[in-house]
Each structure stands twice: as structure tokens, then as C-alpha cells.
Amino acid sequence: MEKTFKLTGGARIGLANATYPFADLYVDENILKINASLVGNLVFQPQDVISIQPYTSIPLIGQGIKINHRVENYNSNVIFWTLKNPETVINEIKSTGFLENKNSTLISRDSKIIEQQIQGGFPLKPFVSVFFIVAWNAFFISDFFPIFRNGTSLPVFPGPGVCSALGFIFISAILSLVSSGFRRFILKEGRSFEDIKKLAIFISLITGFMLTVFLAIGFSN
């Protein structure tokens, strides 16, 4: 029976950081996966990993494991944060057989892993990321143009641009949760709902709450 190891925590990939509980670690004999939503979705074969070592920046709250790897399209700085003792986590990974499987014969699913590695860790299509950034900033900047301020001399907060930006992100997050077609549109080939699920739920809750509060303030004024 194949032994697996799963753990929820946080992750740092390069300079980007996902706090607990927005990252998941999965390990079995043939694969190690770190799913940190938009921070990155990384997948490794045994032969991709040079070593796994304990990592500590702040005792207890800033500890984890560092994945030293040889995948060119991934950032070299890959850390999985955990509240568990890092040595214990490494021993759990060893118990799956992953670290002893470096010379294993390639299996059929390896081609999919290699394809995902070539795409890099970020799950969204490049043009989608650019569109979201441009649209978000355009909505915010619109509050500084008189034509969008109903003739008022100074920008007001929250203005229509701020509310539109929040509404745009809220609707996008909801669509990513309920629409498989929308997910196919925004996600790279081979990526799945699980790659963005936690963050999409979090973003929809936060932006939905903020939008409700801002609209209430706007109507009261």
C-alpha cells in the first residue's frame, strides 16, 4: 500500500509568501507537490530534489523545510512553513519513500509533471495576470478623473473606481469557484480547481465584505 503524507501550512516561493493555511504539501513515493495558490503550484519528481533541510527564520512561527531542487523554471527559494517540528516533517517525507526513489524508472505521468514544470509555478495564464493588474489599477485611477466624480472637485473615498475594482475581483473570484469554463479560461493547461480554491474563497469573502461596507458608506452619504 502506497504511503502518503499531507500537511497544511504556508509557503514562500522566491519573495512571494503564503501564510497558513493557504499552502498544502503532498508527498508519496513518486511525487512531491506544494500548492500555494497564486504564490505557486510546484510539483517535483524524486530526481528533481537535491535535498530537503530544516529552515528557521523565527522559532515556532517561522520554521519549515527548504526544498533544494534542480527544476530550472522554478525559483530556487522554495520553503514550506509548518508549525510542526521540521525534522519530524522531513522524517514523514522519508517514510513515503520519496527521497529514496531518485533512481526510479520514469512512469507515464512524468511527462505531465515535466510539462507543468516548464510552465512555471504560477497557475494563471500570463495574459490573464496582466489583464487583472491593468483592470485593477485602471478602476482605482479612474477616481482621480473629474468625469468619473460627478463634478466633485476632489476624489472621495470610497469612490466608484474603488468599488468597481473590488466588484471586479469579487465577481472573478466567484466565477473561479462556480464556473469550470471560467477556470479553463484563466488557468494554464493542466491546472485544476484545487490549485486556486483556498485563495479564491478567501478573496471572495474579503472583497465581498469590503464592497458591502463601502457601498453602505456611499449610500449613507
Please, could you describe this protein's structure?
The chain has helices spanning 86-95, 110-119, 126-142, 160-178, 180-186, 197-220; strands at 5-13, 16-27, 32-35, 41-44, 49-58, 62-69, 78-81. It is built from six helices and seven strands, in the order βββββββαααααα. It folds into two domains: 5-119, Pleckstrin-homology domain (PH domain)/Phosphotyrosine-binding domain (PTB) (PH-domain like, Roll); 126-220, no CATH class. The termini are far apart. It has a seven-stranded antiparallel β-sheet with strand order 4-3-2-1-7-6-5. It has 221 residues and is of the alpha+beta class. The model has no long low-confidence stretch (mean pLDDT 86).
Structural key phrases:
221 residues; alpha+beta; PH-domain like; 2 domains; 6 helices; elongated
**SSE string, helices as H and strands as E:** EEEEEEEHHHHHH
Give the N-terminus to C-terminus distance in angstroms.
64 Å
CATH topology of the largest domain: PH-domain like
Which runs of at least 5 residues are low in confidence (pLDDT < 50)? none
Number of domains: 2
Mind telling me the CATH superfamily name of the largest domain? Pleckstrin-homology domain (PH domain)/Phosphotyrosine-binding domain (PTB)
Q: What gyration radius follows from the Cα positions, in whole Å?
A: 21 Å
Helical coverage, percent range: 25-40%
CATH class of the largest domain: Mainly Beta
Q: What's the arrangement of strands in the largest beta sheet?
A: 4-3-2-1-7-6-5
